[in-house]
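Continuing from the previous page of notes. For each protein in this section, the sequence appears first, followed by its structure tokens. Read the first protein now.
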Amino acid sequence: MVERRGYPSDLTDERWALIEPMITAWKAAHPSVSSHQGRYAMREIINAIFYQSRTGCQWAYLPGDLPPPGAVKYYFYKWRDDGTTETIHEILRCQVREAVGRAEDPSLVVLDSQSVHAAVNVPAATTGKDAGKKVPGRKHGIAVDVLGLIIAVVVLAASVHENTIGTALLDRVAARTPTVTKALVDQGFKTEVVEHGLAVGIDVEIVQRNPQEKGFVPQPIRWRVEQTLGTLMLHRRLVRDYAINPATSEARVYWAITDVMARRLTGTSTPTWRGA
């Protein structure tokens, strides 16, 4: 049997060692009725997910030396729906924070969103046009900690106001990370978000920009969310929203950052596609 040539997105042994325990536990909790262990190695399934994330290819265009699209799709959607994708992400997030001497969960988050074009197959009911940025598609809203690690993700129509993104993010942060007591947002968010934050126990501060500053000027702490949004754009599958179900787009964000965190924990550099 000819050994697969490998791709830059493939898991190294060290990165796979971080993820394997969660996958092994999942497999143990989901035994086959026939005791069949599955035809494809779980490491190769995740390699295929990472390959698609980084290259942006369609399911049918996954290389022939990776597991077939049907198998990869089965696990991608299964893990999306049963919470495994987020569980893997959360465990690695805690490890990254602990590695730099921080508590597992943060007390402060930064909120922001990014409008991306939607593909023609995306249902019109879940898309819209960002009036400010003139982008027809969806908004990917994220909440990150001071390290730029994602705490929550929401994907909505690009036509929704930042207040809608903000309140949805605050709800998820409050429900999943009760240690958070403060959130920073830019001036695109309004008092509605501040009031909603009070209702869920989070002090929301609208960071005012210095009117004397021209162009893009990174703001203390808030720049972390901009950095994370930029990092997500290194994953071509996120440059445009192709997902019929917004939950799929959310799952892709979690997989992208899982890849980043696994590299960070093992000191592995991330290959860039800028020279392509």
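Done with the first. The second protein uses the same format. Note its length before scrolling.
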Amino acid sequence: MTVLVLFYLTLSVVDSSFPRRTPELIDWESLSVITAFIMASKGLELSGVFSKLAPRLIKSANHSERRLMLLFILTISLSSTVIMNDTTILIFVPLVVATSEMAGVNVARAVTLSAIAANVGSALTPIGNPQNIIIWHGYGIGFLEFIRSMFPFVILWLLVLFVFVLSVRNRELSIERVPPVALRKTLLVVSLVSLVVDVALAETGKPFLALLLTGLAFLVLGREVLLSFDWALVLVFALIFADFNELAFLLKGVGLTFPTGGAGLFLVSVGLSQFLSNVPATVLLSAGRPDWLPLALGVNLGGSGIVVGSLANLIALRIARVGIRDFHRHSVPYFLTALLLSLLVLFV
């Protein structure tokens, strides 16, 4: 957040009208949808449903390192289609680390592949990550239309990830029993209903109502969600909207524009994600109203390269205490392979 605040102050010096115009630069509707989905995701996390599922998957691995990694990848990628990739990382990475250390598995590789799985799985749906919410709501794309368009590429990226997992030497593991986790059924139901209602209201152009109803539901039936909610994260997204919409305005004023479609837009969105992170890159590029699919593909794939490409990567490293070099040792080969195959599918 410090970087975003300093960037805001710098832009205010460059353009003295920026502070006055800040409210109109923030996409309040998308911000409302993002906040509502983060609340619902937090509710699912606190309900214990994913923590309860994880031990069953560990048991199903049958003492096989390769099978354990495949189960983690499948669980994390599927979970991130419903809850945001950041939340998925918060839920599963501690378990991945603990299990890897217990079983003698390479922790850096397990965490990196798990972060990639969260980024790839979240790319499938409009609610999987903040950049998808921004694109979905900003362009008025149908929920199923978004999924249909992203599906072939997400499958491709998952297949590449599976190949990387299958390259893991298949050792026999000895894993201790994981303690049982209590399931909070009321909170689970409230969170799932909120998620469905949020999708329906966002689809019908009522994002503020989605936020209001979600907030009220947790205020009455799950107050701990609101108490543990990271409200600073909402401010981060507001600053991203303001800063990068202003940057797009300034760049347009000096005649600098970005590609509006095709391979150019795809590569620029991938590249900018490596330096700005994929959410700021989405805000910056979407200001020019380019074709949505190359933009969505680029910023989503861009999250699986350099560590700063996605907030989920930074969260994973912070939790697991994995070094950046170790992370890139596994993420960069995956990213380059997926990028090359995506270009072949898209433009050949």
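What the second structure shows: The chain has one domain: 8-347. Residues 7 and 243 are 7 Å apart (CA to CA). We return to this in next week's lecture.
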